[in-house]
Amino acid sequence: MMCRAHLCGISQWEHLVDSMKKRKRAAKKKKLMVNKAVYDALMDAASRGKPVYYGELAKLMELNMMDEGDRTKLFKLLENITVYEHKEGRPLLSAIVISRANKMPGYGFFKLARRLGVQKQDNTTFFYAEVRKVFDYWRGKLKE
Length: 144
Fold this sequence. Notes:
Elements (H helix, E strand, L loop, with lengths): L3 H4 L4 H36 L4 E2 H7 L7 H20 L9 E2 L8 H9 L7 H16 L6
Parallel strand pairs: 1-2
Helix pairs in contact: 2-6, 4-5
């Protein structure tokens, strides 16, 4: 039996490759939309002086924090945001993303901050100072 694509002069292989490319573009577009949604949520929270819980971002990204792969996706996105903000000369926006349990970012945040050369003191001191910088920088930057 011939597929419709074959009747149009397109081989099944070409049709398959085209379908895969379309799915890949759609997935990339969705990822960019999710990344923008997370970034926008962080900027909004920072402009209002509010922290964001990891679980809130996971929900926004439709991730399950009980799944290690999903946690890795969230942490990688936050790492990318951190590096981007650092390159732009701004305080580390991801500093406001905290655990509900201890009200602090995870170990990876501090490890990256040290790697970027911005953390020179202990984790707690750095965290409070960086959160203050984030809130001060973003306060009033976004329109209501």
